[in-house]
């Protein structure tokens, strides 16, 4: 197993480079799905458990395959305070965390995801060969184990409402927060307060929404943290690269429709000149 895949991905983003991810829902053949997304050029995959059903044994299979195919794997858990620790100990490399409104919400995630001195994560070392990427923890100093795991965690509190935007500068200032990923459709509902009488594709480009998306991008740039976004077709996403966004979620895969992801990432790369 390759070492430091997630750390290298973090370094890539810290250098200002653009990365692409895809959420994985239910009904897929894990091996065919991960292989296809790797071949298409995705930088990471995201297990979707907030809005879909992917069971724990299947998640473990995705973790195994992600290590085999050298593709970092993240998760969007059911809730901000869900029991996601078992997934992290199994080898999930980080979280796209829903429902984050306050600094305290984000700090709870840091505490759960990182070993001291950054957090107070419990030790489940040895229950999965994938947490340490195949290294023999019995032959490593505890300090080196904790440092390795901490280096290979990514944490993205989602920005889904005005309250989070108001707290975003402080949230992004926390050690251990890699950046934020916008929950675009939830943000639309929070901005309007009720479902607007527009197509969903129209709402995400409405002036009040664009104003807030621009604010999130600028706040992230100022903090030196990553801004991520989804919820648009490739043409809609590409414009946000000019506003400080560098992580793009290009939809989801379910029921083995992974072939639909190739035209999306090809179009995105073409639009961005990559």
Written overview of the protein:
It contains twelve helices and eight strands. The two termini are about 30 Å apart. The chain is an alpha/beta fold. Strand 2, helix 3 and strand 3 form a beta-alpha-beta unit. It has helices spanning about 5-15, 30-40, 55-70, 85-90, 105-115, 140-150, 160-170, 185-190, 200-205, 205-225, 235-240, 260-270, and strands at about 20-25, 45-50, 75, 95, 155-160, 180, 225-230, 245-255. It has a single domain, classed as TIM Barrel (Alpha-Beta Barrel), CATH 3.20.20. The model has no long low-confidence stretch (mean pLDDT about 95). Strands 3-2-1-8-7-6-5-4 form an eight-stranded parallel β-sheet. Helix 2 (about 30-40) packs across helix 3.
Structural class: alpha/beta
Query: And the CATH topology?
Result: TIM Barrel
Number of helices: 12
> How do the helices and strands follow one another from N- to C-terminus?
HEHEHEHEHHEHEHHHEHEH
Briefly say what this structure is.
This protein has helices spanning 5-14, 30-40, 56-68, 85-90, 103-113, 142-151, 162-172, 184-192, 200-203, 207-223, 234-238, 261-272; strands spanning 19-24, 44-48, 73-76, 94-97, 154-159, 179-182, 226-229, 247-253. It is of the alpha/beta class and 274 residues long.
Secondary structure elements and their pairing?
Layout: H1 5-14, E1 19-24, H2 30-40, E2 44-48, H3 56-68, E3 73-76, H4 85-90, E4 94-97, H5 103-113, H6 142-151, E5 154-159, H7 162-172, E6 179-182, H8 184-192, H9 200-203, H10 207-223, E7 226-229, H11 234-238, E8 247-253, H12 261-272
Parallel strand pairs: 1-2, 1-8, 2-3, 4-5, 5-6, 6-7, 7-8
